[in-house]
Amino acid sequence: MFSFVIERDGSMTDVKVTGLNESFNAEVKRAVRSIKNKWNPAIYKGKIVRSRLNIPVFMANKL
Length: 63
What we know:
Blueprint: E1 2-6, E2 12-17, H1 22-33, E3 42-44, E4 47-49, E5 51-55
Antiparallel strand pairs: 1-2, 1-5, 3-4
Protein name: Energy transducer TonB
Organism: Chryseobacterium formosus
Domain TonB C-terminal: 2-57
C-alpha cells in the first residue's frame, strides 16, 4: 500500500510505501514523486483541507 498527503495547495507530500519487496517499494515511491501535476485538494464543510490518500498496490506474480 502507498499513501500520501494532498496539501491545501494541491501539492503532494509525505509519500509512504509499505510492502514486502524493497526495490518494488522504492520504484512505487519514485513513480509517485515524479507526478508533477497538482491535485484537487479536499473540501470539508466548505473549506479546503489537507487529506491523506491510501492506495493499495499489488506486485504481479511472474509467470
